[in-house]
Specification:
Chains A, B: Its main location: membrane. Chains A, B: It is a multi-pass membrane protein. Chains A, B: Pfam families: CBS, MgtE, MgtE_N. Chains A, B: Acts as a magnesium transporter. 2 copies of one chain form a homodimer. Chain A has helices spanning 18-27, 36-47, 51-58, 63-72, 75-84, 91-96, 99-107, 111-120, 123-131, 135-144, 147-157, 164-167, 181-190, 216-220, 228-231, 245-254, 275-293, 305-331, 334-339, 342-370, 379-408, 412-442, 447-473; strands spanning 174-176, 200-204, 210-215, 239-240, 259-263, 269-274. Chain A is mainly α and 478 residues long. Chain A folds into 3 domains: 18-167, MgtE N-terminal domain-like (MgtE N-terminal fold), CATH 1.25.60.10; 174-290, Roll (CBS-domain), CATH 3.10.580; 305-473, Orthogonal Bundle (Tetracycline Repressor, domain 2). In chain A, the strands form 2 sheets. The first copy, chain A, has a 3-stranded mixed sheet with strand order 1-2-3. A 3-stranded mixed sheet of chain A has the order 4-5-6. In chain A, strand 4 (239-240), helix 16 (245-254) and strand 5 form a beta-alpha-beta unit. In chain A, helix 8 (111-120) runs antiparallel to helix 9, helix 17 runs antiparallel to helix 20 (342-370) and helix 20 (342-370) packs parallel to helix 22 (412-442). Chain A is globular. In chain A, 50% of the residues are buried. Chains A and B meet through helix 2, helix 4, helix 13, strand 3 and helix 14 of A and helix 2, helix 4, helix 13, strand 3 and helix 14 of B.
Chain lengths: 478, 478
């Protein structure tokens, strides 16, 4: 893993020459996406086997944009591109790649090449690279690493996936309590092997337990003679090494953290997390609810297609089961439908509108649970809130459709039946939309994954049952 | 707005006394949410009018947790709580409050009290506080501010909402190119009025245009005599002042930024954005897709209920329209249904499964568009991908339901009809799920807001039409 010499990262490049700046603006559009013309040009050069042209086009790009370029190509072009720009494929590009794309490229490489990448990367990125490999390949790569890097990666791999232990950086700056601001600056200047990737300095006690954090701007603003214990903030957010990444992301967000100390069970400082590593987790965790609720798994467009089909089909088959249950409710009323086929025309309106209302409530509640806004302290208030919303919407929709049906079909009883069924199903939808996710959450089942099946079943079954049942009970069908 | 004296934020508090630490752990659970017992205790003290007990319970909390506490209460308790802990209601608490809760509290306060809060806050938070007020209140508050603060807030308010100009911090550290590391450190120590909220120093040319950025850790690791131009990074991500916040968030994420320079049209440095201000935008923008797709507006559980009803009802009425269109398709087949009522039993299965498959594709495509993963360079590959997935799922589901229906009802022709309809509707679902959002995006309409209506209509209409139409065409209904 990268250890910079001091003075770190001296950048003696000239400002971008005009030609290069122009080439860069050729590659990115206003919204910072790679331009289609640019992508096409690279693809054509790849197809023509003109590696030099490919290299020249890609070279000015930021590593994150190079990673994006890989995602835009299909599998064959990805491997060809990696071959053409192997000199540019540094640890930064690899770290920015989509998981599936990285796996494809890494599987095509020999272990020593993977090890070379891992050595260029920070611990967390190297772990992300190596954790994807199967056991044999993983051993082969680890064997190629420096003993120190290997030890760091192996100890990270010992923590479960998606925990702070996997994500954290082991390289950090920790200093004893007795140090002064001047002493710290001298220490930083003298130790060439320290990381440059830090935004705060951790002050630790003799047992290496964090006692405070110094933001670098405070250190730069303070006279050399002041003790660190006088500038540091004692009130810290410590992250236990086993904490789930979703929880870590919420804490970074809630307390607006830039970095945080990771501690083991005995409270010793074992690593740091910085916000730039957390930002993509915040985005992933917030964005995954829509994918999970719709049964699209992690919804990654780079996923191998067989895996996508399996994930989506599993969900669809489960829903087929609930659709059959709902259909069997309709089956109970076949006789009535045969006598009065208009019921079959109108019944999907009632079930469908219930489904829409249920999905609205479900989306709101799943987000509120995920962001810790809905807790047991406001559960009852929120249930009452959803009930009031469902009543208002159900009455409005019931009146609207009821009056419409009564007029169009000149049948006030039919209007009353569909209006009442609409109100009932909206109430079912509102209550199912909040009670289902709350119940799943209580049993520690992710409400985003399983709620929709139950809510849809409730609104389908009750939509059909309330409408067809009321129609029969009211004597509409003779 | 806060301007710290150097040495900044010297924290001379003792470590938390044991009693206070214990009280803190009494208030938060393992997942960092306020414990229900704690919330209940505060609520009881509020109801009993025991302001001292309320103050004592709330005082050890972090401002973000105090803000959470407000959200857990209903409107009356929120105002009572604000009264009981007015000493603790600093700018930080106000800044952390949910928009709706903040509006409620701020409307209850006189202008000079609001102005006092604004002066304690950083520009961006003060802007967020004041932008909610109506024009008269806003003028009254601005009149109470220091001229300098007023100017800063007024110029921020001149930028459109949700742009970099609204979000940015005006306080930053910018230094000329000729400075050395030592010169910078001396400048920072000598200027007591500089902000302490910075993570990078911007190096500017004589026209105040940024030419490079220095990470503070590099400055601390470098000998005093080195020129800043030798440690700074020239390759910067500059944010135009009019850039939309969603775009800003994507850029912070893509390039792992901690802070970034905001520049005006002539390229002059006018402010900075720091990642802690962007993190909640990343979370909001990623989380809003599920709410928008389901028609739940911004889905905030603290929103006044009338507003929530209006938002959700609008969406439901639009969907009622599409449900009526779908029902009218069924209406075309009333005669067939009257002769063969089993069709009415089975038809919701076909339309419902199409709806599920369409929602899956839609969720994936909306996320891929929002994260810039789907661009015109890979559109055709993605359409082909969704078509293949839809074919695989459609064939599987069609065979499954077709064979099941053939066996259960001992009617192979009925099985063939429903199987074929299922395949057709899955293809419709897959294609609508990708083509609808792509088309909306082309016309610069947010695909998350409007796609679901069109996709559901397509799968409902085609589900009914393909199944009932095939049933009639095949002679099933005699």
């Amino acid at each position: 893993m990268e250890r910079d010499a001091a003075p770190p990262e001296i950048d003696d490049r000239e400002p971008l020459p005009a030609a290069e700046a122009a080439r860069l603006s050729e590659s990115l559009d206003d919204e910072n996406r790679l331009k289609p013309e640019f992508v096409r040009r690279v693809r054509e050069a790849l197809d023509a086997g003109d590696r030099e042209a490919v290299y020249e086009a890609v070279e000015p790009l930021h590593p994150a944009d190079i990673a994006d370029l890989f995602e835009l190509f299909d599998e064959d072009d990805r491997l060809a591109l990696a071959g053409a720009i192997s000199d540019l494929m540094g640890g930064e590009v690899i770290a920015e790649l989509n998981d599936h794309v990285r796996e494809l490229l890494v599987e095509a490489l020999p272990p020593d090449a993977v090890a070379d990448f891992a050595e260029q990367m920070e611990t967390d990125d190297a772990v992300a690279l190596i954790e994807d490999l199967d056991a044999d390949d993983r051993q082969a790569v680890l064997a190629e690493l420096d003993p120190e890097d290997r030890a760091a990666i192996e100890s990270a791999l010992a923590y479960p996936e998606e925990t702070a232990g996997r994500l954290m950086q082991r390289d950090l700056v920790a200093v004893p309590e007795h140090m002064t601001v001047g002493g710290l600056i001298d220490y930083l200047r003298e130790h060439a092997d320290l990381t440059t990737e830090f935004w705060e300095v951790f002050v630790v006690d003799p047992l290496h337990r964090p006692v405070g954090t110094c933001q670098l701007s405070w250190i730069l603003r303070t006279p050399r003679t002041v003790a660190l214990t006088d500038v540091m903030k004692r009130d810290q957010t410590l992250i236990p090494v086993g904490m789930d990444q979703e929880e870590v992301a919420l804490r970074f967000q809630k307390y607006a953290l830039i970095s945080a100390a990771v501690v083991d069970d005995s409270g010793r400082l074992v690593g740091q997390l910085t916000v730039d590593d957390i930002v993509h987790i915040i985005q992933e965790e917030a964005g995954e609810d829509v994918l999970l609720l719709s049964g699209a798994g992690d919804g990654d467009i780079n996923e191998p297609i067989a895996l996508t089909v399996r994930t989506r089909l599993t969900w669809l088959v489960v829903n087929l089961g609930t659709a059959i249950v709902a259909a069997s409710v309709v089956g109970m009323f076949q006789g009535a439908i045969a006598r009065f086929a208009l019921l079959a025309v109108l019944m999907p309106i009632v079930s469908g509108m219930g489904g829409n209302a249920g999905t609205q409530t479900l989306a709101v509640i799943v987000r509120a649970l995920a962001t810790n806004q809905l807790t047991s302290s406001n559960t009852w208030r929120m249930i009452a809130r959803e009930f009031r919303i469902a009543t208002a919407n159900g009455l409005s929709l019931g009146l609207l459709i009821g009056a419409g049906v009564a007029l169009v079909f000149d049948n006030p009883l039919l209007g009353a039946v569909i209006g009442a069924a609409m109100l009932i199903n909206n109430l079912i939808a509102g209550l199912a939309g909040i009670l289902v996710p709350l119940t799943l959450e209580k049993f520690r089942i992710d409400p985003a994954v399983s709620s929709a099946v139950f809510v849809t079943m409730a609104t389908d079954v009750m939509g059909f049952f309330s409408f067809l049942g009321l129609a029969v009970a009211s004597g509409l069908t003779g």
